[in-house]
Amino acid sequence: MTDPRTARAEAIRALSIPSSLLPADGRFGSGPSRLRDEQVDALGTTYRGVLGTSHRQKPVKELVARTRRGLAELFSLPEGYEVVLGNGGSTAFWDVAAISLVERRSEHLVLGEFSQKFATETTNAPHLLDPLVVTAEPGSLPRPVVDEDVDAYAWPHNETSTGVMVPVERPAGAREDQLVLVDATSVAGAAQVDVSQTDAYYFAPQKAFASDGGLWLSLLSSAAIERAGRLEAQSDRWVPGFLSLQAAIDNSRKDQTLNTPAVATLALLADQVEWLLEQGGLAWSDARTRATSGLLHQWAERRPEVTAFVSDPAARSQVVTTLDIDESIDATAITSVLRAHGVVDVEPYRKLGRNQLRIATFPAVPESDVEALVAVLDHVLDATA
């Protein structure tokens, strides 16, 4: 005899969702994120003659310049800070930082898969001492511990795998020469932040900036720039050319990257930065993502089958909402029927291994689509109760 969980899962997968309930755009992935139609259309019109041309020439360099100017305005870049970009994405920047920003030892807040990866990089770096690691259970929020022996503190602004946001504040009592390196990949451009509290606020463009991957961008303080130059000048520190932060700084000042970039990525990024500014900048983006993620948490509060994975409301992400589903309901059946109806990428982070939904609400996602998603989820749960 079929058990109740399996029977309900079969009923969910067989369900037909009325088209009138579906969101206008069903992409809710935590990265890559949805792109706005206007961005995609511009690739075939505005940028048609730029794609496939040299990145050392004016048209592509102007895309880099627009991006750097736009980000400086969006983040109200403090005096002495620079917008620097390079090839490879945030994963590459962890290597860059391990070579050019961490002098001897770093401290890492580890609260999920992505924060662990940077800690692993500095642990494996043969020229560095083992880092100090402050670990918290997935779904909870750790705090930095001031230690005289470290020269860099590192943590994510938003842990994409679990949906926890960490405050961006220099650790109280930290020395001026201890750098603060904040991985903002999944939240940069979607939440208010005081960049002066960091020395490297770095990210990739495939989340709130509605672009493709393959680039890293960092807002660097003068202290970070000075350290990179000093460390790379040391004769006993090997610096691979591709991972040289000084090379990225030098090229960024010329509005270019060390190696050939994906020009389409730059075009999408420049357009999205300017769109965010037109809407009202970080204040607007912060308000929108609070509202859209708030709709999902409000839904969880009224559904007995659903529980917010991050129990502390103050630690919940504005852009990645993780919701536990009661074990009597197979969450994979929910994600399966949604995908069959064009609502995609709401599966949980695979290595977390929970019966869960993970829903992204980046700035390009309007409240109307989140309201429609909630209506779809209500329909699925009510129709198969």
Fold and architecture overview:
This protein is α/β, with parallel strands linked by helices. Helices cover 38% and strands 14% of the residues. The chain contains 11 helices and 12 strands. It has helices at 4-13, 37-44, 58-74, 89-100, 113-124, 222-233, 245-252, 263-279, 281-302, 331-340, 367-383; strands at residues 82-87, 106-110, 132-135, 152-156, 158-159, 164-165, 179-183, 200-203, 215-220, 306-308, 320-325, 356-360. It has a 7-stranded mixed β-sheet with strand order 1-9-8-7-4-2-3, with helices on both faces. Strands 10-11-12 form a 3-stranded antiparallel β-sheet. It has a two-stranded antiparallel sheet with strand order 5-6. Helix 5 (113-124) links the parallel strand 2 and strand 3. The longest helix is centred in the C-terminal third of the chain and has 22 residues, at 281-302.
In short, what is this structure?
With 385 residues, this protein is of the alpha/beta class. 38% of the residues lie in helices and 14% in strands. The strands form three sheets. The chain has a seven-stranded mixed sheet, with helices on both faces. A three-stranded antiparallel sheet has the order 10-11-12.
